[in-house]
Amino acid sequence: MSAHPFQIVSLDHVVLRVRDLDAAFAFYVDVLGCSLERELPELGLYQLRAGAQLIDLVPVDSKLGGGTEVRQENRNVDHICLVISSFDETALQAHLAAHGFEASPAAERYGAKGYGQSVYVTDPDGNTVELKENN
Hints:
Blueprint (H helix, E strand, L loop, with lengths): L7 E11 L2 H11 L3 E6 L4 E6 L2 E7 L17 E8 L4 H10 L8 E5 L2 E9 L5 E6 L2
Parallel strand pairs: 1-4, 5-8
Antiparallel strand pairs: 1-5, 2-3, 3-4, 6-7, 7-8
């Protein structure tokens, strides 16, 4: 087992695919007390502040939502994002490859702490995990 070139710092955000954006807003904003932080309606992205983290709502019929209904056989959690202590893309890619996983190229993405570099990797069950720099 090789040493890890990073440590997980925290959960950054969770992306949820939703059937009814109004109902989702009512639950997360009115019931739980989240606040709308950022919205990109042309993509179908609505980011809610949940303490230090974000909950992203993506309507299933939007560009990001993929257009498929949320059913038992479809995922409604698009991905989770973990903040890591050290973001060295070369070391990170090598570490994942050594364990048989391939990550996307690094890209600048928005999260709970603002913009930063991140990669996507798929776990053995097909779940997408974003690994994001601690900025």
